[in-house]
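Hi R.,

As promised, here are both runs. First protein below:
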Amino acid sequence: GVTRSRVREAIAGVEQRDAEARATLAQIDAGAARVFRQYEANQQRLVAARRQVGAAEAAMRGVRIEERVGERQSIDVLNAERDLAQARIAVAQADRDVTVSGYALLAIVGRLSPEALGLTAMASVEPAPAVSTGGLVVPIRAPARHPFASRFIIE
């Protein structure tokens, strides 16, 4: 009697842990799908923002030509410049969102590590040269793209 009771208790404990493990895996799967959908949406937003910059640049050229021939006023040029600046800001924000969601995607699939990002070689890199600007020392670094850009960004 006592042995059977302990066996049933042990089996119930194993089944409970199995159920918890399946629930955890389902949560991870749902989270990965959500992060991937967000990543794809951010990529699409980036493409749209880049197209908007192209349209704003074309509009800007047209407004400047029309202003030179007297068809537009200076305020129209300023408005076109504002629209172009806002479009460029939208590209920067969308690029940031793609980067963040890309790192989130790497994290959720277990691939976010210094090695996967190529950061282990950083210890052997020489320090960046610096420029003195009136007492403030500013390091000079080449602009860097996010390390996974070539693997994930589809344009």
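And here is the second one, sequence first, then its structure tokens:
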Amino acid sequence: DGLNLQENGAPAPLFDASGLCSRPNSSDLYIADDQNYLIRKLVLGPDLAANPPVASTFAGVFARRSPHVGGPISVARFTRVRRLAFSPDGEHLMVSQAHSDGGGDRSKGVLRLIDMGSNTVMESFGPSGEKGHNDGYGSQAQLHNPTGLAFFPE
């Protein structure tokens, strides 16, 4: 049957859900909604049969072929959200996204960090979106299609 997501009483279909993670010490799930350019939040209740999951857009604004934009999660923009991972304390959500120039080339990679306390999207690595394999800090780093994420306990 599948999961029929509703947001504000209207259908909220996922378009290529490419990543899923749960926040530590929470039953909430976060979904990388790749082709909608969003991060969705799914609130799970204790009895899924009686109370279906409640979906909401956690971060991002649907805008195809728009450059990624940081700032508050309500106005942030993502390009091709691929994978998600929470820090062990649940205070940060790392987002892997493929940067596309509109021509379908998803090999340019960007990692972004969401501060859950301030609900702010920050740039982390590869913000220029340039294709490559160069080590470096912040904008000096170049990533080639990052497809997996993990945080390790300190």
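A quick note on the second one: The chain has a mean pLDDT of 78. Let me know what you think.

Best,
J.
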